[in-house]
Write a structure and sequence with these properties.
This protein is α/β, with parallel strands linked by helices. The chain is 35% helix and 28% strand. It folds into two domains: 3-218, Rossmann fold (3-Layer(aba) Sandwich); 222-282, Alpha-Beta Plaits (2-Layer Sandwich). It has a six-stranded mixed β-sheet with strand order 5-6-7-3-8-9, sandwiched between helices. A four-stranded antiparallel β-sheet has the order 11-12-10-13. Strands 2-1-4 form a three-stranded antiparallel β-sheet, covered by helices on one side. Bound molecules: adenosine-5'-triphosphate. Belongs to the ABC transporter superfamily. This is ABC transporter ATP-binding protein. InterPro entries: AAA+_ATPase, ABC_transporter-like_ATP-bd, ABC_transporter-like_CS, P-loop_NTPase.
């Protein structure tokens, strides 16, 4: 365990709203962590607290063991994309990044590296006002990558990207994590998160609902196992005798509720039934998310 981001009993209250309510979770080096929750759940506020842009009411958030304001070289430690709107429209993408390198005392050479990392090198001299939403998102990401940081914090970075852009971003973030760095990414695109995240943190009303690896979460919520066998009637009785709830799926297939593939295979072996297909039907992330956050602001 190598926690690079630690959110520690974080609470943030505004006059009328408790945006974040005693929230704790960690993000490990070498992973992409999906940060999920319905609108108004408190994702942006949490990210702003981690980045030192909002002051917690109580608790704290640390990056590499320190609050961001205490980090010696924050641009090398953390890169963030909070929204894609902070661009001067009359400036080129390259000029925008050059100004960021000056502000953050970074080498000018990083501009070309960041532009090529996000695939904007051919549009770098165009004014940002001519950029599509997707190009602005790429430019935001380039800005976050300028300091070659150990931690990336991205608030809905896939907004406005087309499917090819989303695939591209997935590759960038996966390779980034593969270098041992940490990525915390919020999104409403749950299906996208299912292909990107190692871990998920799900919040609603500012509170933690789930902190889990994506694999464990989907495995623990396996809905059913589909099994096919030429001896379907023998297999059905054997499964029912063991107390499983079984539904006929088709002529040769059964759906076994609440069972693991190992359990179904073992009952089939004992019953002498040949198994020609065995598949877990996992709940997808979207189902899990909707179940968990039902009535909590969606
Ligand atoms: N500066 C602020 N002043 C007052 N209330 C705020 C402020 N910022 C956020 N809130 C409130 O805190 C709650 C959480 O908002 P936040 O933007 O963090 O949620 P979110 O999960 O990022 O939502 P979304 O997915 O819609 O961006 C909301 O009820 C919001 O209205």
């Amino acid at each position: 365990m190598n926690a690079v981001i630690e959110v520690d009993h974080l609470t943030k209250r505004y006059r009328k709203a408790t945006a974040v309510d005693d929230l704790s979770f960690e993000v490990e080096a070498g992973t992409v962590t999906g940060f999920l929750g319905p609108n108004g759940a408190g994702k942006t506020t949490t990210m702003r607290c981690i980045l030192g842009l909002a002051r917690p009411t109580s608790g704290e958030a640390r990056v590499s063991g320190k609050r961001l304001c205490n980090l010696v070289d924050p641009a090398h430690q953390v890169g963030a994309v909070l929204e894609s709107s902070g661009f001067h429209p009359g400036r080129s993408g390259r000029a925008h990044l050059e100004i960021l390198t000056m502000e953050n005392h970074l080498p000018r050479s990083r501009v070309e590296e960041a532009l090529s990392l996000v695939g904007l090198e051919h549009d770098a001299n165009k004014n940002v006002k001519g950029y599509s939403l997707g190009m602005r998102q790429r430019l935001s990401l380039a800005g976050a990558l300028l300091g070659d940081p150990q931690v990336l914090i991205l608030d809905e970075p896939a907004n406005g990207l087309d499917p090819a852009g989303i695939r591209w971003m997935r590759q960038v973030l996966r390779s980034y994590a593969a270098q041992g760095r940490a990525v915390l990414i919020s999104s409403h695109l749950l299906s996208e998160m299912a292909q990107l995240a190692d871990d998920v943190v799900i919040i609603a009303n500012g509170r933690l609902m789930v902190r889990s690896s994506l694999k464990e979460l989907t495995a623990s919520t396996t809905k059913a196992v589909y099994v096919r066998s030429p001896q379907i009637d023998d297999l059905r009785s054997a499964l029912e005798n063991q107390g499983f709830t079984v539904e006929g799926a088709d002529r040769r297939g059964l759906k076994v509720k609440g069972a693991s593939t190992e359990e179904v295979a073992s009952v089939a072996a004992q019953a002498g039934a040949l198994v020609t297909e065995l598949q877990p039907e996992e709940a997808n992330l979207e189902d899990i998310f909707l179940d968990l956050t039902k009535g909590k602001g969606l």
